[in-house]
Amino acid sequence: MGENPQEPAEQAAGTGQSGGAGSCCGVSGCCGEIEQSLDPAVTVIEAKTSAGCGCVNEQDGAAELPVVVIGAGPVGLAAAAHLAERGQEFLVLEAGDAAGAAISEWGHVRLFSPWRYDTDAAARRLLEPAGWALPDPDALPTGAELVRDYLAPLARVPELARRIRTGTRVVAVARRGVDVTRTVGRDQQPLLVRTVGPDGAVTDLTARAVIDASGTWGRSNPLGHSGLSAPGEDQAAAYLTGPLPDVLGRDRDRFAGKHTLVVGMGHSAANTLLALAKLAKTAPGTRITWVVRSASVARLYGGGDADGLPARGALGIRLRAAVEGGEIELVRSFTITGFTSPNAGPATGPVNVVGVTPDGERVIEADAVVAATGFRPDLDMLREVRVELDPATEAPVRLAPMIDPNFHSCGTVPPHGERDLAHPETGFYLVGMKSYGRAPTFLMATGYEQVRSVVAALAGDRAAADAVELDLPETGVCSTNLIAEDQLPGASAGVSAGDGCGTSCGTEPAETPAAVTSGGSCCGGSAPEPVTIGIGAPAGLGFATGSVHGYSGDSERGDN
């Protein structure tokens, strides 16, 4: 992808293509190696096709079509950074009004992982020439700080800025001219991405490949049992909150002096429970009930002082202390079977949450219900592409055994790349949190390695695509925490990025993480890049203690 905005259009004219003198089909350097769209809002191929450029034909056009990246979150922008480095034509489509829009919705939450593990290597290489510097590597950023100090600057670099369309929601991916049943000639057609813009206009874009990094935020699992919504759940919508409400900030009035029911056993639930406990100290009448389907909460309490991540271990210790101290009422083995709302309009009185327990039916009245039950991917938009998904996790079939939450936590997921993410639909990839389907074992670092491998394959660098390496501590870095400090407990100002995981990954000094080899990449040098370790989506994430992994740990220490 050429970067030569100063080149006069006249120099690109006269190449024999249609479109008029001085415009060359809406691009500079037409049909050459330094093409650049004169309109930043459109791709080269779109400009040339619209102008009837004579050098666009069926075969050449397919090669010049962009790679469409769905989602401008950390993994989507990392994919864009790698595409930019390799000179690939690409377009990023973001449903929100800015890069990192989903993270901004939980911007008040602080991450477990310090800055040194929260960025992608290719992204840093784009940012640093413009004067960007990694914030304090030992500081724990909030979601808002991650957006402000990393994602927003990354989206502004020239190599990416003109290729990002915000306010553009993808509603379907297909093959142009054929539905999912058609096989003959299928791979000869480009992929089609249907979008809805800010004004409601529907636009179909063509692509040579699609990287779906749209995540799972906004598609919460239901509160009922068996994976289904409970009767009356839809009618109780006015009482339900998202998985990470800002209890101590913008949403304070919704919880102060009221009874809140928190449902779920991930770190989203833990964050909200501890925030509510803090609120209760200053807002009389604030009550907190925590319900879980399991008979044990050992997996969320975690390893305590023995946890390899001190901040995460502290979270489990604080939560357990709040329960045992009576600040939070814990109801185990509670399966929600229904909701009874006082009316169908705005909440005017408590909602009745009906559940079954080993002792029979129980009804809990609540003013608000926090649904911290995790997420599931949007697969409706993929009905016309041939995706091969595991029936249990809804992840790519080759990836599924590596991330199965019954047996794995974040830190025990092995390295994986393009070959594990490929589908029968040539050129289509699920990456990031969405690639994990319903499995709560995703790490941001894993997503960065996924897109590095996928982009290498799309660029024809098979060796780099297959050189997939990821060295994660057994305890992993699974989610967010709610600690007051912005430093890791015990972190020293003298610890540098070269000291490996440091206090974030183990109780003893760790060796430098294994490197990912670029394998002959043309992306600015072949020096190995250390694997970065970050967080995944903020809700429903697995909790690794270093000894028991996945849901198999639910039955451990059943007295907890």
TrEMBL record:
Keywords: Oxidoreductase. SUPFAM superfamilies: FAD/NAD(P)-binding domain. GO terms for molecular function: flavin adenine dinucleotide binding; monooxygenase activity. The keyword Oxidoreductase applies. InterPro entries: Auxin_biosynth/cation_transpt, FAD/NAD-bd_sf. Residues 1-21 are annotated as: Disordered. It holds the Pfam family Pyr_redox_3. This is Thioredoxin reductase. It comes from Actinomadura citrea.
